[in-house]
User: Which sequence fits this backbone?
């Protein structure tokens, strides 16, 4: 990134640049002066100076670092989050915060991000006015979010200039409560968006997992089979279809034990037989993005199996619920809340269409599967 010098007053100018390890002590000092609670530790600041998914900029006045801004770019998505923005008290009121935020937006856009999100205390009226002036819109709130018990407003700005036309659905977000229940969590979101009386609960989450589990998976507890999830929806009064691009038992390539593979094959065949009896249609075909668009236009809720490789590098199968599509992106509710994430980071997550096409192909066999609920 090239340095940027902008005149703030006739006698002062601000220089915005990337932070380096030499800035560590002054960044720690700014953190201490600007925040009474919820401070970044010196160790955490040092980590943010080097991580690939972070954008850490500082602003200098007269050769002195007086402010910093930190943005976190979520892997595999078009989403970025303003993690922290701080200006020393003596440098406030000079336009530094605005200039720093604009440069952070530009850097996030260059990193391929379409949206920048943030949380701000409902009591911080000055910051709220700044964000509103720069085009941020409030779309939610967290109650009792900060250490002092104050509420946090959730704000977002589209930093990439997309048309914004497309299909969207109102889908409530639910966080999975175990590492293996993404499928039930995604299904409960879809069902609740159709019938508001279907309130997602942990008990229901675990019940669906017991009904739909593959028993075994690459490690730990088994995940959920697409036909099993569709059957769970059917049992609860919904109509469900399954789209799979292969007929063989799923997820076997990640299991070494022949005994486990035989059990997974037995479960797979039983799900297929149950589907025939229960009226769940199984379509053995590849589903293209234009097909997904038509399904959403028909009012159906769509769950899709993705690989988490582009999100966390783990290559695990993972269920998400699609909430919208436009010319550039597919938007999903991700039920998994990872470390250092806020719930806002998992809701309506924008994923570039080209990236989504790769993410929705799992394993060496390139498994593609989705479920429709109506």
Assistant:
């Amino acid at each position: 990134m090239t340095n940027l010098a902008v005149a703030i007053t006739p006698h002062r100018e601000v220089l915005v640049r990337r932070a380096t390890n030499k800035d560590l002590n002054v960044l720690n000092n700014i953190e201490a002066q600007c925040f009474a609670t919820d401070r970044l530790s010196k160790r955490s600041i040092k980590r943010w100076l080097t991580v690939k998914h972070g954008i850490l900029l500082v602003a200098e006045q007269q050769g002195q670092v007086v402010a910093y801004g930190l943005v976190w770019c979520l892997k595999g998505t078009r989403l970025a989050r303003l993690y922290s923005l701080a200006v020393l008290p003596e440098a406030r009121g000079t336009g530094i915060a605005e200039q720093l935020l604009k440069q952070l937006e530009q850097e996030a856009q260059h990193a391929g991000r379409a949206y920048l999100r943030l949380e701000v205390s409902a009591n911080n009226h000055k910051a709220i006015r700044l964000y509103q002036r720069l085009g941020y819109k409030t779309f939610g709130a967290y109650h009792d979010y900060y250490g002092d018990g104050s509420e946090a407003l959730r704000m977002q700005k589209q930093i990439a200039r997309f048309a914004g036309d497309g299909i969207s659905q109102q889908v409530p977000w639910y966080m999975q409560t175990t590492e293996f229940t993404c499928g039930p969590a995604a299904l409960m979101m879809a069902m609740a968006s159709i019938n508001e009386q279907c309130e997602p609960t942990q008990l229901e989450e675990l019940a669906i997992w017991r009904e739909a589990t593959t028993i075994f998976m690459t490690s730990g507890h088994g995940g959920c089979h697409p036909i099993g999830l569709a059957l769970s929806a059917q049992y609860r009064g919904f109509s469900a279809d399954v789209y799979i691009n292969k007929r063989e038992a799923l997820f076997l390539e990640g299991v070494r034990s022949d005994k486990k593979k035989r059990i997974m094959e037995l479960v797979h065949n039983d799900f297929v037989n149950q589907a025939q009896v229960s009226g769940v249609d199984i379509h053995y075909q590849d589903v293209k993005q234009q097909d997904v668009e038509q399904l959403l236009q028909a009012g159906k809720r769509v769950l899709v199996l993705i690989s988490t490789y582009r999100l966390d590098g783990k290559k695990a199968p993972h269920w998400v619920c699609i909430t919208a599509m436009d010319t550039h992106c597919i938007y999903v509710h991700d039920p998994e809340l990872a470390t250092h994430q806020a719930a806002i980071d998992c809701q309506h997550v924008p994923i570039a269409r080209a990236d989504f096409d790769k993410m929705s192909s799992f394993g060496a066999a390139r498994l593609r599967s989705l479920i429709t609920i109506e």
